[in-house]
Amino acid sequence: MSKETYDRQAVLLLKVENDLRSDNPEKAISRLEGAMQHDPMNPELSTRLGELYFQQGKFAKAGRCWFLYEINDERVEKAISAFRRSVNNNPVLMLQELVCRSFFRVSALNEGQLEKLGNLLKAARMKIGTTPKFLQPLEQQLAKRMIKTHYPPGGQLHVNGFH
Question: Phi-psi region for residue 45, left (φ > 0), alpha (ψ -120 to 50) or beta?
Answer without folding.
Answer: alpha
